[in-house]
Design brief:
Strand order of the largest sheet: 1-2
Number of strands: 2
Structural class: mainly alpha
Number of helices: 5
Radius of gyration: 18 Å
Distance between the termini: 37 Å
Largest sheet: 2 strands, antiparallel
């Protein structure tokens, strides 16, 4: 299980907040959406006893791209996480599930540089982008 921070969890909550606000891409995998929903619900449940934290999360759902709202949620998350190691463990597990659901389902087509008579090489630790990228499967792209 990876180390989890309030900032990392907040970024995942923002992704689900975009889904709630109707501004998320339709390209998000169902498994990722379920994982993000579970994470959101875990945080919402933990925040439910604190009016300010609960309000911050509700405001994030309304405007997920608002950095001030993101910061408010992150601040509350940091406080709750500092006080509750079990909560941190639960968040880390859910975040790992989202990460696992997201990998192996990424397919990108015609989205990067093209080399004529040569190759384009892209390396990355966690994310790469390029043309005809499929992560986690050996199957050819549709139409190939």
């Amino acid at each position: 299980m990876d180390m989890v921070t309030a900032a990392a969890i907040t970024s995942l909550l923002v992704s689900y907040g975009k889904h709630l606000a109707g501004v998320a891409s339709d390209a998000i995998d169902d498994g990722v959406t379920r994982g993000l929903r579970a994470l959101w619900e875990k945080v919402r449940s933990r925040f439910s006893g604190d009016e300010q934290a609960s309000g911050a999360l509700a405001r994030l759902a309304e405007q997920p791209e608002n950095e001030r709202r993101q910061g408010a949620v992150e601040d509350h998350l940091d406080d709750f996480m500092s006080a509750d190691p079990d909560f941190v463990e639960a968040l880390a597990k859910l975040a790992d599930e989202v990460k696992t659901a997201g990998y192996g389902t990424i397919q990108v087509r015609d989205a990067g540089a093209v080399a004529v008579g040569g190759n384009v090489s892209i390396k990355g630790t966690h994310h790469v982008a390029g043309r005809d990228v499929i992560v986690g499967t050996n199957e050819p792209l549709p139409g190939s």
